[in-house]
Amino acid sequence: LRHLVQNPAELDLAFQSSPIPQLDVVLAALVAGLAARHADITLFFDDYHAVEAPAVKRFMERLTRQAPANVAFVIGSRNLPDLQLGKLRVLGDVFEIGPDDLRFASSEAEAFFNDKLGLSIGSGTVETLCSRTEGWAAGLQLASLSLSAAHAP
User: Could you give the C-alpha distances from 99 to 74, 80, 135, 136, 137, in angstroms and in order?
Assistant: First the structure.
């Protein structure tokens, strides 16, 4: 965070002042620092589902609402984050990629196996693999390794 704020000493003080950082000070410094940048900025937050502290959830809620227009957020989570997504959706400020978007359709899996990996797998087998892996790329990749080993001379 230090490189995003205009006055890093202010941020240091907010974190050192008590066992619980002064999140209002951190938020104000971060938003001001982001606004001072003249380039597009993307902030990535992964494993957001692991966030349990209400103070952190409130901080993120406020950060997503107060961030300047040059800031985009990418939030990876196993469940929908509690960030007033309804309002953001209405404004057209959310692009969601859910589990169904990440699953391979049978035609995509067939192209993956046959065209990309050079395997000759029939559509029935592809359907079975898609069903068993729920179309997940990692499962299909593991299946391809097994199939490649089985067809190796």
Answer: 16, 11, 10, 9, 11
Write out the two tokens for 94. 């959310």
This prediction has a pTM of: 0.67
Are 83 and 109 contained in the same domain? no
User: For each of the chain's 153 residues, which pLDDT tens digit applies?
Assistant: 666 766 666 666 666 766 666 778 888 888 988 999 889 999 999 999 999 989 889 999 999 989 999 999 999 998 888 888 787 788 888 888 888 898 999 999 999 999 888 888 899 999 999 999 999 999 999 999 988 877 666
Split into its structural domains, the chain has a count of 2
Range 109-123 burial, b when 16+ CB lie within 10 A, else e: bbebbeeeeebebee
120 shares a domain with 46: no
Taking each continuous run of H as one helix and of E as one strand, the counts in the chain are 8, 2
